[in-house]
Fold this sequence. Notes:
Blueprint: H1 14-42, H2 53-61, E1 63-67, H3 68-74, H4 83-94, H5 99-113, H6 131-137, E2 140-141, H7 146-171, H8 179-205, H9 210-236
Antiparallel strand pairs: 1-2
Helix pairs in contact: 1-7, 1-9, 2-9, 4-5, 7-8, 7-9, 8-9
Amino acid sequence: MSRLQSLYLPQLPLVRRVVFTGALCILGLGYLFAGIFIFQSHHGRDGDPMLSVEDIAIAYAGSKEGTKLESALRGPMSNMLPANENLEIVAWVRAGASQEQYDAKIKAIFDNRCIACHNNNNPHLPALEDYEGVSHVAQQDTGFNVHTLVRVSHIHMFGLSFIFFITTFIFSHAYFRNVWLQSAIIAIPFLSIAVDIGSWYLTKMVETFAWAVLLSGSVMGTCFGIMVFVSLYQMWFYELPEDVK
């Protein structure tokens, strides 16, 4: 069916507009929570509470000045334990992370604050139930390993592709006089997915590519917001020009 023969969003039957609206609203909420999760996972690694390019570089490439444990305590795990216990663990790591000090003071903190989630029952989180597990994350922070990146990459590629397929399909029924602009808004998110995920691996080699991760994610989110807003607006409030009707 050609573009002139297809229905625009304001012309869709009520039932289909309800279906599309429900899908866009739920996807929008999911995208919002995903953004919050990314912020919580990466922010604060450089010591600043806001999310920065340096936070992203540390997450993927690691830090030459710190350990995985310190990065987590400064970033996503900073709110999981009191500040004095946080500082006590960091001081122990910087003093050499000895087993004697671990047994005397540090083990009790991990037992009370950490092992409910960081135990041998969860293969996706480091186990912190004993000195061996804690000493592993007390080593120099090298960022996400390649195995983790590969595992997360295919999840993101499949998940984001489905999200944007649904969103762009609905948005493709929006009325635009400039079809090239509409096509660009549809194509850019798919390109951004490839740039974003590819930049994870490149950041491990050259930290400057952390900018590509940040920018591609921002562009992807902007296009998503435009498509959701335009689609909802045209379905319920927009009147097509008379010549188009």
